[in-house]
Amino acid sequence: MNTKELAIKIKKQQRFVSGHRSCAGCPFPGIVRTVLAATDDEVVVSCATSCLEVVSTIYPFTSWNIPWIHNTFENAAATISGVEAAYKGLKRKNKINKKVKFIAFGGDGGTYDIGLQSLSGALERGHDFVYVCYDNEGYQNTGGQRSSATPYGAATSTSPDGKVHHGKEQFRKDLIKICVAHNIPYAAQAASHNKIDLYNKTKKALETPGPAVLNVFSPCIPNWKLQMNEALEISKLAAETCFWPLYEVVDGKYKLNFKPTKKRPITDFLQNQGRFKHLFDPANRNIVNALQAEVDRRWEEILRLSEAR
User: Other CB atoms closer than 10 Å to residue 234's CB: what's the count?
Assistant: First the structure.
């Protein structure tokens, strides 16, 4: 499938429709449409409290043209696992015979942090569903606070640049590694600029029996201080600097999906984002160097695990 064919399929399905109130240039509507296009089966979605929930379901309107459940910040995975269990029960009693897929959406705040226990439980129990985290690296809906997905050195409303502290002082959590540790059959990282890669990974995830997790890079226009047309370019730079590797893990085996011809320095990713502008003060060069070293370390680990050297 090429980009044009995918666009036609999304338009034909009309599962997530226009009229939502997301920020101009925000990539997550495209992420949602791409994910939902990856199956022709009926779909039930749960959605954690998040930017996605707020902009798509302002009462009495909704952009969801499928069965959709809003749940609290912390339990999207628990909600969808309950629905999936009920579906299996109805099938055993021959009260339903249609094929249905189950998907949960959450931001990084509701996935890495508040909802991690719910996700962990659902993965451990082995429910047949796909969890999609659109990762915009902070609690963007509530003022741009730091989350455990926020990069080292990023300035947020709760980790600002100041005289003593210069942005977040911890490296971001590795969500996929945590999920892989649950021995699930499929997990992957994707990004908003590469819709075909996201589509293919979602299709694999939906067709794989048991739980699957997709972590999708989703730049935030206002809180990253981007121009409205910069989100996809920033996403592309995240992959080309190896800050955000595109890879998948199938039954514990790593596969790298994109290896840049020439790995770009992390400053290429940082330079157009207002949340990192303080890092270009020569006095903060040590922060940039530390971030580059961590990106290099994680990239080398992915290369080793995927045998892609």
Answer: 24
